[in-house]
Specification:
This protein is 37% helix and 0% strand. By secondary structure, the chain is mostly helical.
């Protein structure tokens, strides 16, 4: 699912104008975005023919925040260049481990047998780390 330069010319007005010394064209970025959407790969997994993955991701992120990406996909659908229905896109699979106290688990409320630590006495174990002998 790649867009040809002739198809790109039809939707080029939806994209911002490239300024300065740009190494990756808007056509390459758009084809890379379509590749990620189709293949479901990570950004780092983009083939080298698209260019630097970080540059593509940064530009895509900028386009998404400013509404450019939505306009481009609407135009692609309207002109029937690419027929894609995007309902939800998840590009990150981060998870966070929660401490057991934060999960709603019951707290330990058992008391030590003796109310005062002085009567409980010193700890009944001694932990001494020992070095293993070298073979």
């Amino acid at each position: 699912m790649e867009i040809t330069p002739e198809q790109f010319e039809k939707i080029a007005p939806c994209l911002p104008r490239q300024r300065g010394n740009v190494s990756i064209s808007n056509l390459q970025v758009l084809n890379a975005i379509l590749y990620v959407a189709e293949q479901g790969c990570k950004w780092r997994g983009l083939p080298e023919r698209f260019g630097n993955w970080h540059t593509i991701y940064t530009r895509m992120n900028r386009w998404a925040k400013s509404g450019v990406l939505e306009r481009v996909f609407e135009e692609l659908q309207r002109r029937q260049i690419v027929r894609v229905k995007l309902e939800a896109v998840s590009l990150d699979s981060t998870h966070v481990k929660v401490h057991p106290d934060g999960t709603g688990a019951l707290k330990k409320t058992a008391r030590i047998p003796s109310e005062s630590l002085a009567t409980a006495g010193p700890p009944r174990f001694i932990w001494l780390p020992r070095m293993l002998e070298r073979p």
